[in-house]
Amino acid sequence: MDAPYWTLLPFLAAVFLASLTGAIFRPGAWYKALNKPGWTPPDIVFPIVWSTLYIAMAIAAWRVWGLAGWHPALALWALQLGLNALWSAVFFGMRKPGLALAEVILLWLAVTANLYAFAQIDAIAGWLLAPYLVWVSIAATLNLEIVRLNRTRS
Questions:
Q1: Where does residue 111 rank: exposed (0-12), middle (13-18), buried (19+ CB within 10 A)?
Q2: Across residues 14-40, what is the average pLDDT?
Q3: Torsion of Cα atoms, 130 then 131 then 137 then 143, to 10°
Q4: What angle do CA 85, 72, 68 make, to 5 degrees?
Q5: CA 71 to chain centre
Q6: Structure confidence at residue 46 as a pLDDT band (50, 70, 90)
Q7: What mean pLDDT do residues 110-128 have?
Q8: Domains of the chain in sequence order
């Protein structure tokens, strides 16, 4: 991997832009009032985990770009990043956990495809997305449980 380190900056900028929806559409009182499973991570865990995952996503994409140029696998990366950004807007902004559940399933599929595509080019890039897939799996399960536990709410 011979790409200069400064070429990582556009990938970091892209994940930063995607992360802004999490800053714009915050959980707030509505989320606090929802019934959630007992295994819901504490609020402090989310920004720590997401910051780490976003950095790993940027490095993975940068590695693929450095090895393969503008490969179609990067289109999958952009797709999953867009779906990632959309989830916060749907769940917290629109307050639609059911719709967000459908969206997070699409996100999970996109991350899975992205991980596979990246791993074909660079094993490290694939492994960098593995914790992200695990976290999206946890988020999808949490989203499902929130829908289930709050189905009688208007």
A1: buried
A2: 94
A3: -150
A4: 115
A5: 21
A6: very high
A7: 98
A8: 5-149 (1.20.1260.100)
Give me Rg for the CA atoms of the chain.
Answer: 16
Whether the predicted pLDDT of 1 surpasses 80: no
DSSP-assigned letter for residue 70: S
Q: How many CB atoms lie within 10 A of CB 90?
A: 21
Mean pLDDT for 56-73 is: 97
Under 8 Å between Cβ of 78 and 15: no
Does the structure show a pLDDT above 70 at 31?
yes
Cα–Cα distance measured from residue 140 to residue 146, given in angstroms and rounded to the nearest whole number: 10
**DSSP per residue, 23-37:** HHS--HHHHHHS---
